[in-house]
Amino acid sequence: MEYNFIKNDEQKRFELNTENQTAFTDFYFMAGKLCLTHTLVPEQLGGRGVGKKLVENILEFARENDMEIFPFCPFVSSYIKKNEQCMPIVAKGFKWR
After folding, report:
1. Which tens digits make up the pLDDT trace of 51-94?
2. What is the share, in percent, of the chain residues with pLDDT greater than 70?
3. What CATH architecture does domain 4-89 belong to?
4. Are 32 and 65 in contact (CB under 8 A)?
5. What is the pLDDT of residues 2-50, one digit of tens each?
6. What is the DSSP string of 18-53?
7. Cα(68)–Cα(91) distance, integer angstroms
C-alpha cells in the first residue's frame, strides 16, 4: 500500500493519504509540546494498519524535531502504551487516562 504522510498546518492535522482516502490526527501546540487530540481512519481503510502507520509517522516526526508530545487522543495513547520504546517522547507529567 502506497501512502503520503504530511503535516497539514492549515487544518492542524497530520494526514496519511492512501487509496484516495485520508486518515488524520488533529494537533495543536501547548507550552512547546505537540498535543495529539483525535484520530480518524476512514471506514474503508479500517483494519488495515493505516492508523498504526499514521501514528508511527507522527511519532517519528516528533523524534526528528526534538518534540515532546501530549497524547490526549485515545488511539495514540493506546499505541504508545503498547510500544514502550515510544515513552521517551511523551512529555513529563502527562496524566494517563
Report:
1. 999 999 999 999 999 999 999 999 999 999 999 999 999 999 88
2. 100
3. 3-Layer(aba) Sandwich (3.40)
4. no
5. 899 999 999 999 999 999 999 999 999 999 999 999 999 999 989 999 9
6. ETTEEEEEEEEEETTEEEEEEEE--GGGTTTTHHHH
7. 5
Q: Which residue, chain included where needed, has cell 507550552?
A: 31
Report which DSSP code applies to 91. Answer: P
pTM: 0.94
- Measured CA to CA, the distance from residue 9 to residue 67 in angstroms comes to 16
- Rounded CA gap, 44 and 70, in Å? 28
Q: For residue 13, which of 61, 45, 48, 49 has the smallest C-alpha distance?
A: 61
Domain ranges of the chain: 4-89
For residue 76, what is the DSSP state? H
List CB contacts of 64: < 8 A, sequence separation 6 or more.
none
